[in-house]
Structures are given as structure tokens and as C-alpha cells.
Amino acid sequence: MWGRTLSAMHVGLTDPQAGLMIPIVGRDLMLVEAGEGGPLRYDRLVAERLVEELGVDRARLMADYDTNDVICAAPDFRGNPDLFNWVVPEVVKKLRVTPLPHLEKMAAIPAFKIFATTTYDPLLEQALLKARGRPPTIVDLASADAALLDPKRLGPQDSVLVHLFGRAVGSQSCAVTEGQVLERMVQLAERGRSYEFLNRLHESHLMMLGVSFPDWLARSLIRIARQRPLWDSRNCIEVVVDREPLQADFARFIRAFSPSNSLVFDSWSPADFVNRLHEQWFEKFPETRAGVPAPTAPKRAVRDIFISYANEDLQFATSFARALRAAGLEVWFDRRGDQRGLRGGDDFDAKIAGAIREACAFVPLISQHCNVNSDRYFRDEWALAIARQSRFTGLDRAFIVPVVIDGSDVEKLRYVRDEIKKLHAERAPDGVPSADLISRLRIDQETYEPDR
């Protein structure tokens, strides 16, 4: 799971169009120093101050009370938490705390450009300022337009921070009770206000860190973010990190209904996970430390999966390439500007031929658009691949892996070459590969030995 997580993060850094990784940070990650008693959640510290501010009888509170419990137990509470919007910003303004170092470590990982938080505190904002030397751009759902959320517009030290449920600043309102969180969730689901942000979530990998919502609320949040049933095939993954017993049902739910796209780390605390993620990231990608530009391509023995397609199928080919990269596979795709593909000034024919010669597998995407009696460049790619196919004779795998992306019957496509027709064709409707196909290509890539 670690390898797939890091690969998805790195692909998003070097090629944002392949899918950015967005952390959604919750209260269990917001830990501060609290003297001899050990670390304390920031919201618990706020709750303790609220007890004094509102004159709440501690005997009415459970041992692990939070801000919701305190406000609901306030003498003047009459079911409307909005009457208490003034008090939390006042408490936050007076607090002076020392966050634990894992927040700054997370802020230092350059693969993270856009952050979302379910908390109202300033801790993540402060960590980003300290780690990157400049404050994040802070937006709410109503102001999160497409330009602000475009990772291609963000420099190496830039970041965007979205407060899903408001900030405890001045007269701004924020959700500190369960009722207010519910109302914010309804607003989040109303695409009018949050359209651009939901689109960015939908196109991105998600990392839910210590959100610690009740099971039903966590399910709602991830479903709203995905905008489609969790069992539908998609290119992006979810990484869920939460060791709270409260999340056991949610972990079972996500494993059951999204087994191929969700990675659940329920044996790690969110803070320990972030510390380990920081360590592994910079061990694997030391060149991405602050001040050093990110690589345009990792240094490795060439073993790409070459994707060939008709120009009319560019959209589905792009989806297919993104899905493979999201699964941690290395892909050669000739879209101009692609990290492995063609760039301005390249010798087109020579680079294509070299990529096919060095690839571990050749995937021709088959559709009705291939069944044309005309001179097309993909036919030249097929010819080069067929010439190389003979070098795999006698092995228990083929070099060419045909994949049908529409409803075509390959046998009935008159102008598809016989050398490709005779091979078993996989299917990836609209460019969305199955888990089995990804697994097959992963084995092909991992077991491939380049020519000596």
C-alpha cells in the first residue's frame, strides 16, 4: 500500500493532469503539546476553555467531551448553536500552542498542493507558512474557483487551503457542533456553491487523515467527493488513515465497496502515518526537497507500457493512461507535453520507434476508429510492435496486449491486422481498465528484463 500511495503522489507532482493527491485533514491530526499530560487535540483544548467561557457544569460532560458537548450543555443553549458563533473565534484568538512536528512534515511534502481541512483552527495554515516560507491561499467553498484550484498555476512552494466547515476567525462562522457540520455537509453537496472544488476532488486522489467523523458522515463525505457510486471504475484512489475504533465500520465499508481504489491504514495513528510518509517520500524522492526542482521523469531502467491509439480516441486513451499511472505503473503516452511522451522539437518517428523498442508491453487501444481503410500513424506503431513481438516467442507472456475500448468485436474489424486479431483482447470500456487488466500489466512490468 505504501508503494501505491507514493507512486500516486509522485505522478501527480510530475504530471498534475494524471491526478493530484489532496489531503483531507481532520481533528485527530491537530495535536499540540500539553505538558506532562502528553499531546492533546487542539479542539479538546478549545472545549476546555469553552467550559470556562460558557459556565458549563463539568459534571454534565462525558470524560472525552468536545466542543459539541460543551455548547449543547451550555445554560443558554436552546437548540440553536449559531447563537454561540462568537465564542470559538474569541477562544482561538487567545490560545498559544505548540503543534507537534508532524503537521509541518506534511506541509513540507511537495506532492501536496491543495489541502482541505474539516477543522476550524489555524494550525495547518501556520505549518504551511513555516514549511514553505509563504502562507497558503485560503479559500472557502464559495470562492474556490477553477483558477485557484489549478495545480499547474502553483509554484513549488505554493499551496491552497480549503476550510470545508469554516474558520474560527473574526466574525466568520464555523462548524463546531454536530448540527452545524451536518448543515455544512448539505452545502457541500449543493454543487452550485462548491462546484469547482467538487470537480477538483472528483479528479484527484484523496488522503483522509484523522477525520474521525461518525461512520455515516465519513461515508457521506467520500461519496460527495467522488460524485458517483464507489464501486464504479475510476482512475483515482482514496487513502484512509484513522485508528479510532469509531472508524472500524467505515473501514469495513470502504474495503467492501471500493476494494480496488481504497487503501485503508487502520493500524497507524494519523500522526505516525504522516511521520512515516514524510520519511519514505524523501528517501525515495530526495531531489524534491525545498529549493530543488521536481524531476520530469524518474531515473530508472526503461520498461514503460506503450499506449497506441487512434486520434479520435484521445479522451479514452488519456483516461486509460491516467488509470495505469494511478495504480503506480509506468506509461509511455504520446500526448504532446506528456512526461514520457512527445515534446516540441522531438524527432517524432525516432522517439516513437525507440519507445516501442524499449517498452515492456505494447497496448493498442482498439475501437471502430481503427477500422478504417486509410493511412494512419497508429498502423506504423502496430507494425513496429508486431516486429518486436517475435522476440517474445516461447515466453509465457505476449508483448502486444490488445485492449478494446468500445463495444467492437475485434474479429469483425476488417482493417485490424491479423497479427493483433489472433491475440486475446482485454476490455476497458471508455478507457477504464479493470483491476484484472491492471494486475496483468503490473506483472508484465515488474517481471520484464530490459535487453542487455
Outline the secondary-structure elements.
Layout: H1 2-14, E1 21-25, E2 31-32, E3 40-41, H2 42-54, H3 67-72, H4 87-94, H5 102-108, E4 114-117, H6 123-132, E5 137-139, E6 160-163, H7 178-189, H8 191-202, E7 205-209, H9 215-226, E8 238-241, H10 248-257, E9 262-265, H11 270-284, E10 305-308, H12 314-326, E11 331-332, H13 348-358, E12 361-366, H14 377-389, E13 403-404, H15 418-421, E14 426-427, H16 435-447
Parallel strand pairs: 1-4, 1-7, 4-6, 5-6, 7-8, 8-9, 10-11, 10-12, 12-13, 13-14
Antiparallel strand pairs: 2-3
Helix pairs in contact: 2-4, 5-6, 5-11, 7-9, 9-10, 13-14
Please tell me about this protein's structure:
Helix content is 38%, strand content 11%. By secondary structure, the protein is of the alpha/beta class. The strands form three sheets. It has a seven-stranded parallel β-sheet. It has a five-stranded parallel β-sheet with strand order 11-10-12-13-14, with helices on both faces. A two-stranded antiparallel sheet has the order 2-3. α14 links the parallel β12 and β13. The longest helix is centred in the middle third of the chain and has 15 residues, at 270-284. The radius of gyration is 25 Å and the shape is elongated. The two termini are 31 Å apart. The relative contact order is 0.11.
